[in-house]
């Protein structure tokens, strides 16, 4: 009887996690390192890449960092070629890099809308397109797209982000459909509300010392009655990157403490 737990090992794999100097990407990459993978990440500024390298080193991880904007197709192609030469072919891609702009739609410029869609949807397309040929040649690969509650739900001020993350859900299903025959699995992770710099404005303590109204709303809307931590995503991310999920394809795995299952408490 083989040792089943070995199916969750990432030993000998090269994992590229985009935008992983900190936040969710950093947490996923550190879990991958613990599971045996070699970590590669990018960010748009050298200072952030340097900050990320230092953070990984503090955890005993010798990561490889590259300055690259995921929306720049030529830069992404060059980065993937450089990674392949310097580290090895990419076995696991996590499309994590993303931004959000919280602006009421009628006040949002087309430029702002385009920028969010460019990074959150075109970026994953561009990076996936760059890594797929090598995965197809080697007839194996894992692509994991970081989706969102907004892949399923809308809310005020996040029209561009919801449109992008809804599109990312369908891009995930399409990559799964188009490249599954090459033993490539493409799945998504849909985090709930996670305490990172991206959501810090939603958790700011109010001038009177009270919690942000949105903070109170999310805790009430989450059956787990708490914000998620980036570490809550590590197990699902390792599962989707490992052989344990070789027959899982096109799934969006929501890691949300139960938000999507819950209609919410009766007021009062
Ligand atoms: P974060 O703290 O804002 O980190 C995002 C990372 O992406 C940063 O390192 C950022 O670098 C990088 N990035 C932004 N634009 C980039 C570009 N064009 N090219 C390369 N890197 C770029 O966000 P997070 O909370 O960790 O979220 C990570 C992912 O999870 C995002 O896709 C987000 O939409 C998604 N998500 C977050 C939550 C949540 O509650 N936090 C929930 C669901 C999904 P800079 O610092 O230079 O901008
Ligand atoms: C917001 C939040 C969310 C989270 C996440 C939820 O303003 O509603 O930023 O969008 O980031 O995507 O899954």
Walk me through what this model shows:
The chain is of the alpha/beta class and 268 residues long. It has a single domain (2-192, 229-258), classed as NAD(P)-binding Rossmann-like Domain (Rossmann fold, 3-Layer(aba) Sandwich), CATH 3.40.50. The chain contains seven helices and seven strands. It has a seven-stranded parallel sheet with strand order 3-2-1-4-5-6-7, sandwiched between helices. Helix 1 crosses helix 7 and helix 4 (110-138) runs parallel beside helix 5 (159-179). The protein is globular. It starts with 13 loop residues before the first strand and ends in a 13-residue tail after the last strand. The model has no long low-confidence stretch (mean pLDDT 97). The chain binds NADP nicotinamide-adenine-dinucleotide phosphate and D-gluconic acid. The site of NADP nicotinamide-adenine-dinucleotide phosphate has 30 residues, from helix 1, strand 2 and helix 4.
């Amino acid at each position: 009887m083989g040792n089943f737990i070995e199916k969750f090992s990432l030993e000998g794999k090269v994992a590229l996690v985009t935008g992983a100097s900190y936040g969710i990407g950093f947490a996923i990459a550190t879990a991958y390192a613990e599971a045996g993978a070699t970590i590669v990440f990018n960010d748009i500024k050298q200072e952030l890449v340097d900050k990320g390298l230092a953070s990984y080193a503090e955890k005993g991880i010798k990561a490889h960092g590259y300055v690259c904007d995921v929306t720049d197709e030529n830069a992404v192609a060059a980065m993937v070629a450089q990674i392949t030469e310097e580290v090895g072919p990419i076995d696991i891609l996590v499309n994590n890099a993303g931004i959000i702009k919280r602006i009421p739609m009628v006040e949002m410029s087309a430029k702002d809308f385009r920028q969010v869609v460019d990074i959150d949807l075109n970026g994953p397309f561009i990076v996936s397109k760059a890594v797929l040929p090598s995965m197809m040649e080697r007839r194996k690969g894992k692509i994991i797209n970081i989706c969102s509650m907004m892949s399923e739900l809308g809310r005020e001020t996040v029209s561009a982000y919801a449109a992008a993350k809804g599109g990312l859900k369908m891009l995930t299903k399409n990559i799964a459909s188009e490249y599954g025959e090459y033993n490539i699995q493409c799945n998504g992770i849909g985090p709930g509300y996670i305490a990172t710099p991206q959501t810090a404005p939603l958790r700011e303590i109010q001038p009177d010392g009270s919690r942000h109204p949105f903070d109170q709303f999310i805790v009430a809307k989450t059956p787990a009655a708490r914000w998620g931590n980036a570490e809550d995503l590590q197990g699902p991310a390792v599962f989707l990157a490992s052989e344990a999920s070789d027959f899982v394809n096109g799934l969006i795995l929501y890691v949300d403490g139960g938000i999507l299952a819950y209609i919410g408490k009766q007021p009062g």
